[in-house]
Amino acid sequence: MKYLIQFWGLIVVILTPIQEVLFVTMFLILLDTIIGLYASYKNNITITSRKLGNTISKFLLYNLAIISGYLIQQYVIGSDVIPIVKIIAGVITFTEFLSILENIQKVTELKIVKTITGILKRKSKENDML
Q: 38-91 pLDDT, tens per residue?
């Protein structure tokens, strides 16, 4: 038991520098799940254990990807020259953010993603004309 406690203590110490990244990722997954459940309820879509199981998979796999990237960055590459953790976390959080917006769209019927992309395209065209 003593060694198990020491092992988990070591894991906590090693992962402390990325605890905020892991927290944000888990928070976004949880938020996406809650809004997705509400969207399913509102649109009379059956909630199955398989769909909820995907959430557990996301928790595990996303966090393992971030932890793996951190370990590679710190102990294989040995520097922050390539911000592997930020790249992985950026892709994951962007994906979850889009999913949250899509779920909000299902509940409110507002075309949020389409509106944002339209605004960005207009701004891009305006900048090209300058």
A: 988 888 888 888 888 888 898 999 999 999 999 999 888 877 778 999 999 999
Distance CA 119, CA 20 (A): 31
CB atoms within 10 A of CB 115: 12
Closest CA to 37 of 96, 91, 104, 97: 104
At 54, list the tokens: 């995907």
Q: What is the pTM of this model?
A: 0.77
By C-alpha distance, which of 97, 120, 123 is closest to 24? 97
Distances (CA, A) of 86 to 8, 27, 61, 91, 124: 25, 17, 16, 8, 26
